[in-house]
Amino acid sequence: LNNEAATQKTLTADGWLKTGDVAVIDADGYMFIVDRLKELIKYKGFQVAPAELEATLVAHPQIQDAAVIGQPDEEAGEIPVAFVVCQDPVPSPEEIKSYIVSHLSHYKHLHGVTFVDAIPKSPSGKILRRLLRDSL
């Protein structure tokens, strides 16, 4: 409201509103919101969606929940690091990283794994990434 610069960044010339959401459209034409632009990790010029890494991590049989954030890095800009909640037998950080290597492109590989008891979430279930960043 009353901020012309912010309005110009938010609205396109033809009147579309840029929400900052990242969406995909499947083969049937259904659209799914999968991430937020502000949450994308910028790794060496590549954009890495935390939601994609999180979905891959929770597909691992010993990982119950996961959150991925970008950790500042002088060379890369940001590096993906994961916080995971595991069940027994708990995989090692190296096993988790290898799992990601076998499923995702090189620029999406994890550079750190931290084991936690729970992923901090809002009452609506949104991951509280700020709390994870503050814990680094």
Structural class of the helix and strand makeup? alpha+beta
What form results from the Cα inertia axes? Answer: globular
The CATH C-level class name: Alpha Beta
Low-confidence stretches: none
- Major beta-sheet overview: 3 strands, mixed
Gap between N and C termini: 35 Å
- How much strand content do the residues show? 25-35%
How many helices? The count is 4
Number of domains: 1
- Overall mean pLDDT score? 92
Stated plainly, the CATH topology is called GMP Synthetase, Chain A, domain 3
As a percent range, the share of helical residues equals: 25-40%
Provide key terms for this protein.
single chain, about 140 residues, alpha+beta, GMP Synthetase, Chain A, domain 3, three-stranded mixed beta sheet, two-stranded antiparallel ribbon, 4 helices, 7 strands
Can you describe this structure?
With about 140 residues, this protein is an alpha+beta fold. It has a single domain, classed as GMP Synthetase, Chain A, domain 3 (2-Layer Sandwich). The chain is about 25% helix and about 30% strand.
